[in-house]
Amino acid sequence: MTQQHKQPAKETVEKELTYIQKVWHTVAIVALLVVVILIARVAFNVLLMVLAGVLVSVYFHGLGDMIQRKTKWSRRLSMSISVAGTFIILTVLFWFMGAKISKQITVLSDSLPQTVNTVKAKLSEYPLGDKVLSYLSDDNSDKLFATAKQFFNTSFGVLGNIYIIMFLAIFFTANPNLYKDGIIKLIPADRKEMGRCVIDRISTALKGWLKGMMLSMVLVFILIGVGLSIMSIPVALVLALLTGLLKLIPNFGSLAAMIPGVLLALTIGTNTAIIVALIYIVSQTIVSNIVTPLIQKKMIDLPPALTILSQVLMGTLSGVLGIILAVPLLAIVMILVDELYVKKIETESEALDVES
């Protein structure tokens, strides 16, 4: 009897120990998952900077290839001219246009309070405007500013991110084969050929996106600058430059760039504001119709809804840098899915059809 009583007691203790072990295992797994998520979020921002560095390197290589084709110079000389020439051109542009841009920014900042008061007076004349003003009360405006500040925060600050991205781009440009071969070495021997194919396809897609994006930014800058100058809108150069830069953010950038231009035009008159809004809309439509076919020749066709969802998700995770890089990152993901999954399924389906 004593042994019979001891046996169930021993089994009970073992069950309790097993249960406690399972609980601790679960807690450990959850804690490890939380740590991995936190590390992945920080590492994800670093990976985005690496992607930005790759895009800048793609630009340097594209310009170097063009110089080499036109001049028949050596690869090293063409790439040196590509990198040095880009920095020289940017320096010259800022040297000649910096004073005018700085002056217009000063005018814009000085006239901003008056502009806001004028816009409030204009909006208060309409019922819908009253609702907008009531929503943009002190509490709500503070929340909006806090959200915007958090949105534009980055891992190392704006200047720090630019510094890291430019150095990564220079390293990638100086010796791209080192990094490409390093990735290929991580792939199993029977998959190396497919790995090279995927890398080449991603490179082509990124070149297409970058070429189309740069062309659209220049065209938007010219069209908006000319249109606002004709309408005698103050600080037209700054507004055109802002519109060109915000073209980096598809869909949302165009809307954000239009707001300050329309607000300034509203201080002149309602009709002027309507014309300025039409200038923005028509310019963006023209650029989209010219540039979109160019992008789609080099990139896979991205569904618009999927593009917007990727921008919202990337903006939530990584702020403005995530939104800028959402489209090329989505293209990379879709290429990987197509090469590693879709084509494999199609090949297996064809093999089954042949056997049957």
UniProtKB/TrEMBL annotation:
Family, as annotated: Belongs to the autoinducer-2 exporter (AI-2E) (TC 2.A.86) family.
One Pfam family this sequence matches: AI-2E_transport
Name of this chain's protein: PurR-regulated permease PerM
Record keyword Transmembrane helix present: yes
Localisation: Membrane
Source organism of this protein record: Mucilaginibacter lappiensis
Keyword Transmembrane recorded: yes
Membrane topology: Multi-pass membrane protein
